[in-house]
Design goal:
It comes from Kineothrix sedimenti. With 96 residues, the chain is mostly beta strands. Helix content is 12%, strand content 55%. It has one domain: Immunoglobulin-like. A six-stranded antiparallel beta sheet has the order 1-2-6-5-4-3, with no helix packed on it.
Length: 96
Amino acid sequence: MEDLNTAKQRTHKLMLTNRRTCTISGVSDVLSFDIKEVLLETDQGMLMIKGGDLHVSRLTLDKGEVDIDGKIDSLTYSEVTGYGGKGESLFSRLFK
């Protein structure tokens, strides 16, 4: 039982270089992305990245890794518990 909890909880790491390149690990899901905003579900909560000309350059959900390039203006975390269960749609989780 202890191994299941350890496997589920990966290490969450965020490395930002010159506000242009961001490497993130511990990502469970990419909920949405466009050139102004990327919304990620991480093991430490929801992560919203805002900026300009944002691109998801590498996405490996098996390993839980995402690379984002562009001008990064803000990184905002919020708790996962406020967004409901996995069975809900993206919009119902975002607009609660």
